[in-house]
Amino acid sequence: MTNATPESTKAKQFPPGMILGPDGKPCKICTAFRNWKPDTAAKNSESSNKPSSFTATAGVMSELAGFTKASSRPDTPPEGCPPDVEQLGRATWTFLHTTAAYYPDRPTPRQKANMYSLLSSLPILYPCTHCAADLGENVKSHPPDVSGRVGLSRWLCERHNEVNEKLGKPIFDCSIKKTDERWKDGPSDGRCD
Ligand SMILES: Cc1cc2nc3c(=O)[nH]c(=O)nc-3n(C[C@H](O)[C@H](O)[C@H](O)COP(=O)(O)OP(=O)(O)OC[C@H]3O[C@@H](n4cnc5c(N)ncnc54)[C@H](O)[C@@H]3O)c2cc1C
Q1: CATH number, domain at 103?
Q2: Where is the ERV/ALR sulfhydryl oxidase domain (predicted)?
Q3: What is the DSSP letter of 107?
């Protein structure tokens, strides 16, 4: 993964958390929205000699709206904007885990080949380039298990956990009970029925 560290970007001063693409330029789809221009509000309010009541009110409102103190940017892009790395990730995982949950117990050779092809394409086509590169390494050592929905759900859960671990997110229980509960059946309290 290529992150803009102070050492590597002395000349250009990229914001922390911004991810650079293979061309060395900021990669929008590789970066969380909040990190794309994180200090816009901070700069604006610092440059104002007399903070107005509007600035103070806007600060409170933005905090209430879930903005961070250092930034006026919400965590997710506004409605109608292209996805950031997190929205793309959530949508992709939703598609993949749901597809695995509904994959046949006994897939035909054609279904197996198509699933294998779909999963093998991700490291080549996924637009977040550093995500794709890491996934490619991961898939090399753990080839997709397309034998049936139980094996596929576990394989995918484990790949997702490798990303979770890298990002410091909680590790998911990869038993079929838990993956089915999350992606197919919903919890036993019936709140999703
Ligand atoms: C192939 C791929 C690679 C990625 N690589 C990167 C990367 O290198 N850097 C980066 O910043 N982002 C990466 N992402 C995005 C990242 O994984 C998250 O999608 C994003 O950070 C949003 O996280 P989230 O907390 O909303 O939940 P997500 O991780 O998107 O998970 C969505 C939901 O899935 C469920 N879940 C969580 N873990 C599992 C699991 N193991 N099995 C089944 N269900 C689970 C949870 O209910 C969770 O709410 C990648 C995404 C994909 C699809």
Answers
A1: 1.20.120.310
A2: 81-183
A3: -
Which are the contacts of 26, defined by CB distance < 8 A and separation ≥ 6? Answer: 4, 14, 18, 19, 20, 36
Q: Tell me the per-residue pLDDT of 137-153, one tens digit each, with 9 for 90 and over.
A: 999 999 999 999 999 99
Query: pLDDT at residue 129 above 70?
Result: yes
Tell me, yes or no, whether 193 lies in a domain: no
How far, in Å, from the CA of 107 to the mean position of ligand 1? 26
The CA distance from 180 to 192, in Å, is 13
Per-residue pLDDT tens for 34-57?
A: 998 866 544 444 433 333 332 233
Question: Residue 34 falls within a domain, yes or no?
Answer: no
Question: In the predicted model, what is the mean pLDDT of residues 50-72?
Answer: 37
Residues at CB less than 6 angstroms from ligand 1? 1, 85-86, 89-90, 92-93, 97, 122, 126, 130-131, 134-135, 157, 160-161, 163-164, 167, 169, 172, 179, 182
Mutate to test the pocket of ligand 1, among 34, 93, 140, 159 (most ligand atoms within 8 A of CB): 93
